[in-house]
Design a protein that fits this description.
This protein is mainly alpha-helical. It is 68% helix and 7% strand. A three-stranded antiparallel sheet has the order 2-1-3, with helices on one face. Strand 1 and strand 2 form a beta hairpin. Helix 1 runs parallel beside helix 3 and helix 2 runs parallel beside helix 5. The chain starts with a helix and ends with a helix.
């Protein structure tokens, strides 16, 4: 099988895992309670921890997906490291993007419409959002870094082993 076909299949697997990761992120992440006041919505707490927690949970999920898929890829595609690097980078970016898309769309709320019609003092759970956009590249960084580390380990073993 050609390297392009293997990389394409691995990218497809990463995209499917990304959809599942988005579902998991949507299910386990905390929501920030929003308070309606004067036709606008404000966080109920002064500095809500839910924003940071949602980003951290997303980061942990995507890093875990990157580690698991790269370990599986190293066991199956060890003789084609370049295909694994490309599929890890592209699949990681696509999988994390799909995870973010699925997670944010499942919990989306029309905040403007709700704020205009809600009476003052009403509390709702805010939608999931990514606030630190750097977490979208963690999956790809982990995948490429693990392949590079494995290849370096092999090179050192051949050179000085």
């Amino acid at each position: 099988m050609s390297a392009v076909r293997l990389a394409t299949r691995w990218i497809g697997l990463a995209l499917a895992v990304g959809v599942v990761a988005g579902l998991v992120w949507w299910r386990v992440s905390p929501r920030v309670p929003l308070l309606a006041r004067g036709g606008d919505l404000f966080p109920q707490e002064f500095q809500p921890r839910g924003y940071i927690a949602a980003d951290a949970i997303f980061a942990l999920i995507t890093v875990g997906c990157g580690v698991v898929l790269t370990l599986a890829g190293l066991s199956r595609l060890r003789d084609r490291p370049l295909a694994l690097v490309w599929s890890g980078a592209i699949g990681g970016l696509g999988g994390a993007g799909l995870a973010a898309l699925v997670g944010t769309r499942l919990g989306s709320v029309d905040l403007v419409g709700y704020a205009a019609s809600a009476p003052d003092g009403t509390v709702i759970d805010g939608p999931l959002q990514i606030h630190v956009f750097g977490v979208l590249v963690l999956w790809a960084i982990v995948a490429v870094g693990m392949v590079a580390a494995a290849e370096l380990w092999d090179w050192i073993g051949e050179r000085w082993g």
